[in-house]
Amino acid sequence: MKYEQLAKDIISNVGGKENVSSIVHCITRLRFKLKDESKANTEVLKNMDDVVTVMKSGGQYQVVIGNHVPDVYKAVLEVSGLQAQDPVDDDGEKQKASFIDIISSIFTPVLGVLAATGMIKGFNALFIAMGWLESTSGTYQILNAIGDSLFYFFPIFLGYTAIKKFGGSPFIGMAIGGSLVYPTLSGLTAGEPLYTLFAGTMFESPIYITFLGVPVILMSYASSVIPIILSAYFAAVVEKRLRKMIPDVVKAFIVPMFTLLIVVPLTFIIIGPISTWAGSLLGQGTLFIYNLSPIIAGILVGGLWQVLVIFGLHWGLVPIAINNVTTMGQDPVLATTMAASFAQIGAVLAVYIKTKQQKLKTLSIPAFISGIFGVTEPAIYGVTLPLKKPFIISCIGAAVGGGIIGAAGSQLYIIGGMGVFSVPSFISPTDGITFGLWGAIISFIVAFGLGFILTYLFGMGKRKSEATETAKNEAAATTTSTAAGEEITSPLKGEVLNLSDIKDEAFASGALGDGVAIEPIEGKLFAPATGTVSALFPTNHAIGIKTDQGAEILIHIGMDTVKLGGKHFSVHTSQGARVEKGQLLIEFDIKQIKAEGLPVTTPVVVTNYKDFTLQKTSEKQISFDDQLFKISSK
Fold first, then answer.
1. b or e along 49-74 (b: 16 or more beta carbons within 10 Å of the residue's beta carbon)?
2. How far apart are CA 128 and CA 137, in angstroms?
3. Calpha distance 52→29 (Å, rounded)
C-alpha cells in the first residue's frame, strides 16, 4: 500500500466515501462522480504533493495523478471500500450523465488495449513497407491477428462497457456484440438476394434473409461503434423493465433470454442499419468539413486539442475518429492532433533547461518522458499550464503542426499509439509509406522545435510556487532570523481574551505555548499565515500550522471538544497540505457545540515561542485578517 496515505487524503477531501457515487480512472486521473461537489476541498487536493491538479468537467470531479494513477486507484478502492459502479444519487436512481461522461466511460476501459493492438498492427504495416516481412509469412499473419483482434471484435468489447455504463448486465451486452459479428451471417450475402429494398436510393439494400417474415438488411458490423452502443442502451432499458416483471425464482435466465430475443432481432432489423447509415453520414460530414480547408482544420483542431484535453472534451472526437476508420478506412481529423504532444514536450524541455527551481526540474523529467509517448497531462498540469506562457506556446506549436498535417493530407489508418508510437498509424495498409507519413513526421519536428525555441526565448515567467520560493529566499537573505518581523493574523472573528482567563490549565499556564484565546462569534477558522499543516487532529477540533518563516502555531477550537469525535466540525484541509494566509481551514457550528455543553473559547498559541519575541494585539475585538501577533527573533 505505497499510496495508502495519499488515498486516504484524497477520499477525505472529496467529501468522504459517502459523497462518492462512483469512481473510475483513465491514463492519468481519478474520475469521481460526486453527490455534492461543494463538499470537496479542491484547493487542498491541488496543494498535495502527489496530486498534479483537480479538474471539473463532463459531470466528473477529476483528480489528476499522473502515470501511476492505476496504483493510486487500487489504493483508493482498498482504503475506502468503494467499488467501480454506475453513478447513483441519494435516491438510488441513476444520475443523468453528460455526453462526454458517457463516451469516456464507454471507451476509457478499452483505450489502452485498443492503442496496444493498433500499435502492433501499425508496426506490422511498417515491417511490410520496409521489406522486413512478407504478407504471406506466418509471423505477419499472427501479428496481424493480434493487431486486428480487438478492433474486428470491437462490438463485443463495447457491448460490455456500454451496457455496464447504462446500468445493464455486461454479459448481455457482450452477447449482443457477438451476434453482430457472428461469421455465418456475413457468409449469407454470397448468394442471390431475395429482393431489394429502397431500390434507386442511397439506402438501396439487397435482402438475403428474413426474420419471422420481416426483411433483415445484412451489414458488416465488424469494428463498428454506433450500432452496439445504441443496442446496449436499448438492452439496458429492456432488461430493467423485465426485472420488474419476472419473478425472482426464474429471473437469472429468463431476463437475459427475453432481452436477447427482443434486442438482437431489432438490432439487425432496425437499429443496426439506421445507425450504420448514420455513421456513414457522420463520416462523410466530417470529411466534407475537413476538405473545405485541411490546413485551417488542422490549425484549429491541432491548436485547440490540449485545451479540449484539459476540460475532458477531447472524448467527443474519439468516437468520430473510430467511426471514420471503420466506415472509410482512414481518419484525417484525429490525425491533426498528433503533433500536440511534441509541441508540449518541446516546451517542457525548454523549461527544464532554463528554470532554476529544483522542484520544477524534477517535475519536468517525468512529464517529458510521458509526453514522448503521447501522455501529456503531467506536462500540462505540472509544468506548462501553471507557467501559462509555455502552455500557450505549445498550443501555437501544435496548431502549426496540425496545419502541416492537413496540408500533407496525412491520415490515420488505425487507432494506435500516441506520441512516437503514432508514426506507424500513418502508414497506408494498401499504399505503404506515402508523403502523408513524411508530412506527419515533419509536423512533429516543427511542433517540437517551435515549442522548445519559443519557450526558451519568451516563455519563462515565474511559476507561482517558484515566485513564492524566490520571495522566501530573498527574505531569508535579508535576515538571519527564521521568523523576523512575521505578522500572524487572526484565524477567527470574536473577542480576544488572555490565556490565563480560560478554564484549561495546560493552556492557561502557558505550558503549551504563548498567545491569546479568542471567543469566536462566527464558526470559520482561516489560516493565520502561509505555511504547512503540521498537525490535524482526527476529530478536526485542533490544527497546527508551521509558517514559512518557522513559527509553529497551534489552534484549539473550544475546550474538551475532542469528546465530540468530529461532530459539528467540517475540515477543508489535510495534514501536510500547504495553505495560504486567509485560506478557509475549518468550519464549526458554535450553536451546536454549546448545546453539547462545551465552550468554544479557542486558544491560539505559538508553541515554539521561546525562539521569538511575541508582540500580541491590544485589541479586544478582532476580525479575520486583523493582526494578532507580531513575532521576531530574540
1. eebbbbbebbbbbbbbbbbebeebbe
2. 10
3. 9
- Cα–Cα distance measured from residue 335 to residue 321, given in angstroms and rounded to the nearest whole number: 9
Q: Who wins on pLDDT, 333 or 565?
A: 333
Burial of 431 (0-12, 13-18, 19+ CB in 10 A): exposed
- DSSP state, 606? E
CB 71 within 8 A of CB 10: no
HEC profile of 139-160 = HHHHHHHHHHHHHHCHHHHHHH
DSSP output for 341-367: HHHHHHHHHHHHHH---HHHHHHHHHH
Q: What is the DSSP string of 462-478?
A: --HHHHHHHHHHHHHHT
So what's the pLDDT on residue 386?
82
Q: Distances from the Cα of 595 to the Cαs of 81, 382, 523, 568, in angstroms?
A: 34, 46, 14, 11
Q: What is the pLDDT of residue 90?
A: 34
The predicted model scores a pTM of: 0.56
Q: Three-state secondary structure along 361-419?
A: HHHHHHHHHHHHCCCCHHHHHHHHHHHCHHHHHHHHHHHHHHHHHHHHCCCECCCCCCH
Catalytic residue numbers, as ranges: 26, 556
For CATH 2.70.70.10, list the domain ranges present in the chain. Answer: 486-633
Percent of the chain with pLDDT over 90: 34
The pLDDT tens digits of the residues spanning 570-580 come to 888 887 888 88
- Residue 405's closest CA among 378, 425, 380? 425
Segment (H or E) for 105:
helix 99-129
d(CA 68, CA 2): 11
How far apart, in Å, are the Cα atoms of 545 and each of 531, 535, 558, 576, 606? 6, 7, 18, 9, 10
41 within 8 A of 13, measured Cβ to Cβ = yes
Q: From 3.40.50.300, 1.10.620.20, 2.60.40.1180, 2.70.70.10, which CATH number describes the 486-633 domain?
A: 2.70.70.10
Quote the CA–CA distance of 394 and 344 in Å, as a whole number: 5
Give the DSSP letter string of 26-80: -SSEEEEEES-GGGS-HHHHHTSTT--EEEEETTEEEEE--TTHHHHHHHHHHHH
The cell for 378 is: 503531467
Question: What is the C-alpha to C-alpha distance for residues 229 and 166, in angstroms, rounded to an integer?
Answer: 10
Q: Distance between CA atoms of 601 and 524, rounded to whole angstroms?
A: 13
Q: Over range 592-621, report the average pLDDT.
A: 89
For residue 274, give the nearest of 234, 317, 332, 238 by alpha carbon: 234
Given a cut of 80, whether residue 311 has pLDDT beyond it is no
> What stretches of 225-339 show up as alpha helix (H) in DSSP?
226-245, 248-266, 272-292, 294-310, 318-328
Of residues 373 and 59, which shows the higher confidence score? Answer: 373
Please tell me the predicted confidence (pLDDT) of residue 67: 65
Bridge-partner residues for 533, per DSSP?
Answer: 545
The domain made up of 4-85 is a member of CATH 3.50.50.60:
no
Q: Please tell me whether residue 165 adopts helix, strand or coil conformation.
A: helix
Mean pLDDT to the nearest integer, 73-99: 61
- Ranges for all domains in the chain classified under CATH 3.30.1360.60: 4-85
| Grid cell of 382 as nine digits | 505540472
